[in-house]
Amino acid sequence: MTTAYYKNKTVLITGGAQGISLGMAQAFAREGANVVITDADKEAGQEAVERLLKEKLKVVFMACDISQEHEVAALMQQVGENYTQLDVLINNAGIADPFIGDLDEMLLSEFDSILAVNLRGPVLCCKYSLPLLRKAEHGAILNISSTRAFMSEPNTFAYSASKGGLEALTHSLAISLAQDRIRVNAIAPGWIETGEWQKKSRKYKPQHTKDDKEQHPVGKVGTPEDVAEAALFLCSDKAGFITGQSITIDGGMSVKMIYK
Ligand SMILES: NC(=O)c1ccc[n+]([C@@H]2O[C@H](COP(=O)([O-])OP(=O)(O)OC[C@H]3O[C@@H](n4cnc5c(N)ncnc54)[C@H](O)[C@@H]3O)[C@@H](O)[C@H]2O)c1
């Protein structure tokens, strides 16, 4: 997607230092946006900014653990001091490993910590960014959920519940914030390969088997660029009649009927 829409717009991406979000940060910055990457991992944040500055993109890093209310409040204050408004908030940060173990051995603290990042974090980010989003002519919030909001493997219940909550938050906030002309949508990714988008110490060369690829009807595993293209569209004026919706980006995996 190439459009003049994002030129000089401000886009904040949580968990933006690596993985899917770094692909989105690059895409929005290439469209001319001022991109604020925020992440709890400062090392990854610095590496991400170095990577994007090589292209002379407009990108800064601000550290924040989104599970901590005082850090989110401080982050939004810092954003407000540096930019007049916020045009796009992307709630991407998450504990991305879905597996938690057996329910009967689960510690409540493990469940709570996943919910604190994956669901309460986006709520805090929405709450504290609201004054800045209201200043934008057409604010947009994009929540990155997961196909695991709708379907499961065993022992992924905390992650799935957090992402199911994020899907519900999406339509609920779309209605609550409509009067502020803020649209709220979600992307539910399936398997997205992020090996090339990790910080140096976590980077790996992706290797996918024939089965890995063929279990996706489109014949490949997804990439951050696949998610970024949809994000650019959903947060732009081209999607001005779309709010409260979730788009699944999984190469068709979740609509494939399986008989054994
Ligand atoms: N990769 C996939 O296949 C996939 C599939 C479906 C959904 N998702 C979702 O997409 C999002 C990104 O996933 P990814 O694969 O790129 O993960 P990733 O682990 O590569 O990146 C996640 C980023 O979030 C940051 N983060 C974690 N906790 C944080 C906190 N408390 N505060 C601030 N930052 C924090 C991490 O430091 C990291 O940089 C996640 O919400 C994940 O659940 C990913």
Question: What's a quick, concise take on this entry?
Answer:
This protein has 260 residues and is of the alpha/beta class. It has one domain (10-255): NAD(P)-binding Rossmann-like Domain (Rossmann fold, 3-Layer(aba) Sandwich). The protein has seven helices and seven strands.
Describe, in plain words, how this protein is organized in 3D.
This protein has 260 residues and is an alpha/beta fold. It has a single domain, classed as NAD(P)-binding Rossmann-like Domain (Rossmann fold). It contains 7 helices and 7 strands, in the order E-H-E-H-E-H-E-H-E-H-E-H-H-E. A 7-stranded parallel beta sheet has the order 3-2-1-4-5-6-7, sandwiched between helices. Strand 4, helix 4 and strand 5 form a beta-alpha-beta unit. Helix 4 (108-135) packs parallel to helix 5. The N and C termini lie far apart (40 Å). The mean pLDDT is 97. Nicotinamide-adenine-dinucleotide binds next to helix 1 and helix 4.
**H/E series:** EHEHEHEHEHEHHE
Task: Work out the strand percent.
Answer: 5-15%
CATH topology: Rossmann fold
CATH class: Alpha Beta
CATH-level-2 architecture: 3-Layer(aba) Sandwich
What kind of sheet is the major sheet? 7 strands, parallel
Mean pLDDT: 97
Overall number of domains = 1
Q: What's the number of helices?
A: 7
The stretches of 5 or more residues where confidence is low (pLDDT under 50) are: none
- Spatial arrangement of strands, main beta sheet: 3-2-1-4-5-6-7
Number of strands: 7
Coarse shape: globular
Distance between the termini: 40 Å
Structural class designation: alpha/beta
Small-molecule binders here are: nicotinamide-adenine-dinucleotide
Computed over alpha carbons, the radius of gyration is 18 Å
The share of residues in helices is 25-40%
CATH homolog superfamily:
NAD(P)-binding Rossmann-like Domain
